[in-house]
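Researcher: Please predict.
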Amino acid sequence: MDALESDRDSSDPLSDGFDRLSDSERDEVYAQIDRVVRVAEPDPGQFAYRPKHRGLVLPLVVNAIAVALIVAAALVLTDVFATTPEATIVAASGAMTAEATLLDQFRREAAVRLDEQEREIGRIRAELSAVADSQSDLDAEGRAEAERRTRALESALASAVAAEAALRSQVA
């Protein structure tokens, strides 16, 4: 025996000296263990469920009720979500009415805005016309004033030239 096995024998609390038995004694111990295990081993059918009554009616009734409920639910859902041509027409006409109302309102608002803009354009044109008239009046007045000044200056020049000519004739 080496040191490891001797340590196991002395320090291992589960060691009962089984490895010190002879081969025939070991075989006998193994045989006893196999017999005990076979007796204690559960039978595969031991835990199987065995009904007290072999009834077929109750499961068939439960399944028939379930199928009937599913079919009824399917029929109700198809009836609820079914669209008829009348419902489609009513929905479409309602949508068209709403669209037409919106378009009419938009047209009225656009017409009001256009009228306001046309009035503003007319007011601006009137102001421009008044400015053009006053400018032409100012231009006419300015031209008349310029002509009057020109005539005054020409007459002053003519009298200055005449005075100079008179002076020259006196000096000469």
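Model: The CA atoms of residues 63 and 69 lie 10 Å apart.
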